[in-house]
Every structure is written in structure tokens, then in C-alpha cells.
Amino acid sequence: MTWIFEELSVLFIFFMQQFKILFPYWIIGLTLSAFLTAYGEKTIEKAAAGMGKGRFPLFYLLPACILGVVSPLCMYGTVPLIAMLARKGIPQSILVGFMISSILLNPTLFTMSLSLGIPIALMRLVQSLLCGFIAGILVHFLWNKKPVFQLGSFTAEEKPVTRTRWHQFLHSLRRNFEITAPYFLFGITLTILFQRYIPTDIFTKILGDKSPFAILASASIGIPLYMCGGGTIPLIRSWIDAGMSIGAASSFMISGPATKLNNLSAVKMILGKSNFILYLIYTLSFSVLAGYAVNMLF
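The structure corresponding to this sequence follows.
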């Protein structure tokens, strides 16, 4: 029995080491997201509603992608916003760029990604913007006359009214904590199990710099393994320390949120079957190509 307690002690030490590193980024990210929800959501909605109505709608594409990554809304919160903007006549190329960028990154996830290092966090930001921007360009030139969104009779549900923005901030903070805490702790648990029981040389052969299949493997792993963005940060940290190439990490950070189950069900709801398949093909292809590009550059 002694060895069991010794092993548990080692795992607990590993757990606390990871927790102390990531906890500040997690709390800051939750607080920033709640603040934007309470004090900035209306501003984001008004800014998005004013885009794409001029003679050159593509000028608004990059700002729309920036609003996407700044938006604290989850995908089920983004769907009503897209429906409202579509009814106001915002071009679908603008809405696609906003939607994809919003799926790939949000304030909480970017803040937590800073624990991987500022270069990797900025790389993730640029790729999220680029993925949404290219998607908007493709829609503008190839699907300009075809409907992208299948909104049908979709109507946005009325949001519950809170008495003050402070109450809304506290409500959002509590909700964000309740949603992300289990995934955050589970991600750290997976990380310490990986560090303790998975030989580094085996991992390096699969996802390391010298592996020809690292990018494809990483993109594939992101599909079933990605649960919650914050929960994957500890894993990515340990994988990079174990020899994972930056390109493979980049690929995982795109394919994961793009194919997260909650996101997929919401995307399927507003795109329809055929466009939903095109969405999967595009995002997974982008994750692979971006991974190879990052490895070539770095």
C-alpha cells in the first residue's frame, strides 16, 4: 500500500504544479469574458450590425473576424446574433468570417493560450483571424449568389433581463466557472497522467518535429479529444514540452474547436447538411495546411 500513497503523492505534486501555472490565466480569462458579456456585448452587436452595408463589403471582413475572436458568446449565443444580422441585410461573407473566427477563439481561450507563450498565443490569434477571413473571401466570390445559412423560421430567444450590468457580470462569471471548471481540472489530470505514464520517445516519434505524420495526426487527435478550450491548454503545454512540433500544436488548436461537438451541432443547425460538410472540409484542410506552414516558418 505504501507505493500507492507515494504514487498518489507524486501525481498530486504534478497536479499542483500545473494548477499554479494555469490558474491565473484561467481566472483572468473567465473575468474578461464575463466583463465583455456584461459591458461589451451590446457594443459588439451594434458594431457587427453596421458592417457590410457600404459599396465595398469586403472592407468589413477583417473587422468582423476581429469582432468574432473578441466576442465572449459561445456558438449557441452566436447563432441568434447571426440570425439577427442576416435579417438586417449583412452580407453572408461577413457573417461567415465572424462565425468561424468566433468558433476558433474567444477572450478566455486567448488569455489561457498566453500560458503557452506569447508567440504561440499570437500565432493562434492570427490563424483564427486568417481562417475566418479566407472563408469570407471564398463565400464572397464563390457563393455570392447561393445561400450559405439555412435560418428558415429561426428566431432568437429573448434573453433574460438582469437588473444591473453588475448582476449580469456576476451571473456570466458564475456560469463560465461552472462550465469550464470540470474541463479545466480534467485537462490537468490528463496532463499529469501523460507526463507520468507515457514515454516521451514514443510521443516524439508520432508528433515530434521529425515525424512526417505529425500534422495529420495532430489534426485527427483534435477531433475526438477537444472538449473545452481551456481544458486542452495543459495537454498542449505538456505535449510541446515532450517534443510536439509547433505546427502540430497549431493544427490541433484549429481542428479541435472547429469540430467540438457543441460547435458542430450549432453550425449544422444554421448551415444545413451540404454547407455543413463544406465547413468541415474547409476547417480541417485549413488546420492541416496551417500546421505545415507554421513548421516551414518556424
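The chain has a mean pLDDT of 82.
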